[in-house]
Amino acid sequence: MTPRERIIATLNHELPDRTPTDGWFHHEVQRRLKEHLRTDSWQEVLHFLGIEGWASLSPRLRFPQFELRATLRPGPLPGRPVVWLDERTYEDEWGVRRRLGEGSWYEQRISGPLENAPSLADVEAYPWPSPSQIEEPPEYAARVRELQQEGHFVSAGIPNPYKQAWELRGMHNVLADYLANRDLLEAIYDRLYGIYGEMTKRMAAAGVDMITITGDIAMQDRLMMGPRPWREVDKPRLAKLIEDCRQIKPDVFFFIHSDGNVMEIMDDLIEIGFNVINPVQPECMDPVEVKRRWGDRITIHGGVSIQRTLPFGTPEEVRAEVEHLIRHCGYNGGLVVFPSNVIQPDTPIENIIACFHAARDFDLRSLSGKPN
Questions:
Q1: Please, which residues have CB within 8 angstroms of residue 64's CB and are 6 or more apart in sequence?
Q2: From the DSSP assignment, how many helices (H) and strands (E) are in the chain?
Q3: What pTM does this model have?
Q4: Residue 296 sits in which domain range?
Q5: Structure confidence by residue, pLDDT tens digits, 12-55
Q6: Residue 109 forms beta bridges with which residues?
Q7: Residue 191: how many CB atoms within 10 A of its CB?
């Protein structure tokens, strides 16, 4: 199988030749892996690990007035033009301010332009981006086809509008708005879903294989805003976004990322059209239970612990966890082995290699079907 065929078979719940893998890596981990393998090529690292076939090609939003003031400073964060307010603090194109931590390894949101918005008029006055600010990659559809013909599975993505809303407004404000200021929250969401809905329709029209929506909506034990407010506010908007895209490309896959426990809305996510659930964080959700209850309708993209086994286990323990995951969740496809978020700098290189090579080397022909 080509890498693209392997991924598509998996997402269609067909048994591939081997379980596909994917990963997100902290920039310091990327540096260490390249150093370990004595290469400057990240593609060589991915090939060595066995992560193959994934490509991403998304439109972006342009903010011309902001770009006149922005500068690009060397370094891994933020990695794009921003307005620097001091050596560690910057403002992005939305007006959200963040501060870099020591060594620029992490960053913290410190304020947003709608944090003190008391009325709908303040929301109206904010300079929301328009469809004219969407910039597609050059010859978007042709480039997507070219990548697919080269054996890639092509995705494109947007942030979860909930995440963009709380960055603009503040998480404490948005969570309170679900209960006490619903009109203000829905006004923000209508504008965010308007622009992101247009972006996803363009992705579908370009022929991408999968559209990703990323941004946490859950804590370790439950949904942040609770299932009832989510069903009232987020669910219908996500449903429309997915439906609009499938009117254009009926077979496009939809992927949702959220850390934490989303068990209480899994049926809702499937109902509105999500095919791929990431990362099924094993500290919060048992991948085997998820497979048992919903495995015929969704693909698990995740399942490997980055809080316990990957950073603190031995290579043997990492391999055992990955093999257990494949035996119990990958016996009929429907599994992409993926550490459950960005692999952090405290993770031993040997464990990273053990994780991906365990999946690469697992002979799916040894599986006799659904385990007991």
A1: 133
A2: 15, 15
A3: 0.96
A4: 3-63+129-366
A5: 999 999 999 999 999 999 999 999 999 999 999 999 999 999 99
A6: 98
A7: 19
pLDDT tens-digit map of 306-357 = 999 999 999 999 999 999 999 999 999 999 999 999 999 999 999 999 999 9
* Burial annotation 231-249 (CB, 10 A radius, 16+ → b, else e): eebbbebbeebbeebeeeb
Q: Which residues have C-beta within 8 Å of that of residue 34, sequence separation ≥ 6?
A: 40, 41, 42, 45
Task: Count structural domains, the chain.
Answer: 1
Question: CATH no. for residue 326?
Answer: 3.20.20.210
The tokens describing 97, both together, are: 């301010």
User: Which pair of structure tokens corresponds to residue 237?
Assistant: 């908007």
The answer to whether the bond into 279 is cis (omega within 30° of 0) is yes
Token pair 């209960």: residue: 179
Q: Given the DSSP bridges, would you call strands 60-61 and 54-56 parallel, antiparallel or unpaired?
A: unpaired
> Is residue 99, in this structure, part of any structural domain at all?
no
Nearest CA-CA partner of 193 in 160, 171, 216: 160
Domain presence at residue 98: no
